[in-house]
Every structure is written in structure tokens, then in C-alpha cells.
Design goal:
mainly alpha, 12 helices
């Protein structure tokens, strides 16, 4: 059935903190123990593992929003230290431990089991066409343990949405680094202050902003024009629209139940101290 886009977007807000425990300290330490040199080695090993031994060019294309050369600093180097299969297992164990640590007693509640079941039904039901990273994750076994299953479902839903977001960016002619600039501006930040791109050479980042300025999306002061803001809003609306099929398998009542069940879990997962 077709659900309101407001509820599809609410699911994004709830899934995000659950899935992104993957990028926190516990999984990071597990990857460092395998011989990774830094956080980004573990990030690329874990997130790219469902794609198998894909070359850096393929991972760059699928991930979409990294600057040229960033992926190649880690892929294929990491596959000299671990295998995709081992990286998948380490990522799941570390992420599950991190989620359990953050949500405390909620980890053992019947409500979590029900939320994991509903989220998993949605997460394994969406079409895979045109969604390479989601398809890679779908090929993995669904964990039996409820906290692991919830994390896995959240990750599937996140990457399904992410693949659709990349398609929406592509349809609007917005490249990966440009997407970060637009996100920074939507958060009220200047591009050079934004964490994912502030490390880029100043001239490179200035060139990206200049390109957006020439297209009328960024003004002389480096902020949004009306056209830029509208483009960002259209991309977000299309992203929600493309994410919606994942929830077609749930009734309206089931989706409401899932949202209610995830709210305390997502709130607890979001409470970080860094």
C-alpha cells in the first residue's frame, strides 16, 4: 500500500541512528584489531564488503559522494588485511554490541523483537533494481538475534534509501561533493566548515562551490539561492518517494506500530558522548 511521505521520512529519521552505530567506536576498534590503519579503512572495509572484491572505481561509483581518489586510498588495500566475509561478520558483531550498549534494557524488550520483525519485513521486501549496495546487503543472511536483526534491517533500509538518494542527485545533475555542499548549506553551515568535505584542498572545494554558483544554486556569499534551496527540497522529496516501496509490505497500522516501536530505540541510539 502507499504510505504518506511524511511517514516514510519519519522512518528515515528513526533508522539513521540505529544503522549508524556502525560508524562508532566499538566497530571501529574491532576493525583496528584486524590491522586497519585508521577509521576510514574500517569504514570502507565494512560498508563495501557486500560488494565483494569490487575495485575502487566501482565502490566510488556506488558510494557516490566521496571525492576522487578517497576510496582508492583504502580499497583494495584493506583486502590485504581481511576478506569481505570477515569484514561483514566483524561489522555485524561490532554494530550489534554498540547498539546493545547504547539502548540498555530496551535490547531485551518484547517491543524490540516486534520492531525488528516489522523492520525486517520491510527491509527485505523492496525492489533491488538499480540499487547495488542494497542488493549486496540483501544477499546476506538475516541475523537471528533480535538486536542484530534490527541493526541489519535498519542498515538495509538506510542503504536502500541511500541508493535512491544517489539516483535523485543524479537526476538533478548534482555530483557527490556538490551534494555535501548543499547539505552543509541546508544545515546553515559554510561548505568549508562541513565535516565530510572540510579536509579537501581549498581550491578544489572552491571550484565545486563556483560550479554551483554558475548554475544559480549558490549566491555570491556562498549561501543558498532560492533555486538552490528548491533543488535541495526536490531531491529530498524524490528520495522519500523512491524509499517508499520498502514499506508497501506493511499495513498502515503496522507502519504506525513500527514507528512507535523504533522511537525510544532511536532516541537511545542517538545519545552519544562525542
Amino acid at each position: 500500500m502507499t504510505h504518506p511521505q511524511t511517514k516514510v521520512h519519519r522512518m528515515f529519521e528513526l533508522v539513521e541512528p540505529i544503522a549508524t552505530v556502525t560508524f562508532s567506536e566499538v566497530p571501529n576498534e574491532a576493525f583496528l584489531a584486524l590491522g586497519m590503519r585508521n577509521y576510514w579503512d574500517g569504514y570502507f572495509a565494512g560498508r563495501a564488503a557486500p560488494l565483494g572484491l569490487a575495485p575502487a572505481e566501482v565502490v566510488h561509483a556506488v558510494f557516490y559522494n566521496f571525492a576522487d581518489g578517497e576510496v582508492a586510498r583504502h580499497i583494495p588495500w584493506v583486502w590485504g588485511k581481511t576478506t569481505p566475509q570477515e569484514a561483514i561478520a566483524v561489522r555485524e558483531r561490532g554494530s550489534t554490541a554498540a547498539l546493545r550498549q547504547r539502548i540498555g534494557q530496551l535490547a531485551d524488550s518484547p517491543d524490540l523483537v516486534r520492531a525488528a520483525d516489522l523492520a525486517t519485513r520491510a527491509a527485505v521486501s523492496a525492489p533491488t533494481e538499480g540499487r547495488a549496495l542494497y542488493a549486496g546487503l540483501r544477499a546476506l543472511d538475516v541475523p537471528a538475534e533480535p538486536v542484530a536483526r534490527l541493526w541489519h534491517a535498519a542498515t538495509l533500509l538506510r542503504e536502500h534509501r541511500g541508493d535512491g538518494h544517489n539516483a535523485a542527485l543524479l537526476a538533478h545533475g548534482i555530483g557527490g561533493t556538490e551534494a555535501h555542499v548543499l547539505l552543509a548549506l541546508s544545515l546553515g553551515m559554510r561548505a568549508e566548515e562541513f565535516g565530510r568535505i572540510h579536509h579537501l584542498p581549498k581550491a578544489q572545494l572552491a571550484g565545486v562551490v563556483d560550479g554551483l554558483r554558475r548554475r544559480g544554486l549558490v549566491d555570491a556569499a556562498g549561501g543558498f539561492t532560492d533555486a538552490g534551496r528548491q533543488t535541495k527540497e526536490r531531491i529530498e522529496a524524490l528520495t522519500d518517494e523512491l524509499a517508499a516501496p520498502a514499506y508497501d509490505v506493511l499495513t498502515a497500522d503496522e507502519l504506525d506500530e513500527l514507528i512507535a516501536g523504533l522511537e525510544p530505540i532511536a532516541a537511545a541510539a542517538q545519545e552519544v558522548d562525542h
